[in-house]
Structures are given as structure tokens and as C-alpha cells.
Amino acid sequence: MAVFTPVTLHDLNPLLAGFPLPPATAVRGIGSGIENSNFFITVFEHIFCIFACSLL
Questions:
Q1: Which of 15, 24, 30, 55 has its Cα between 20 and 30 A from that of 40?
Q2: Which one has a higher pLDDT value, 51 or 12?
Q3: DSSP-assigned states of every residue in 13-24
């Protein structure tokens, strides 16, 4: 669980548009771990943890 792939609000909000959520207001990478990319995102007053994995 680390940040190997950078993600910005500009990258994230088009993806979130496919869900019944308002746009994210913050995204913060989780810097610990050894695989995948993990982030805390803030949507309205809620904080979610998401991860991005690579398919080889």
C-alpha cells in the first residue's frame, strides 16, 4: 500500500462522475505499504479510502 501512481483531483473527478457522489474536494496519497496505490479522498464531509491497481 503505497503511492506509485500519482492522482490529482483533475484525474479523479471524471471517474467519480459515474457514481452518485459530489466531486472530491481533496485527495491524499497513503505513503506506506509495498504494492498498489492507495489514497484517502474527501467527498463532501466524508473520507473514503481507494486504491488503484495495475493489471499486467
A1: 55
A2: 12
A3: HHHHTTTTSPPE
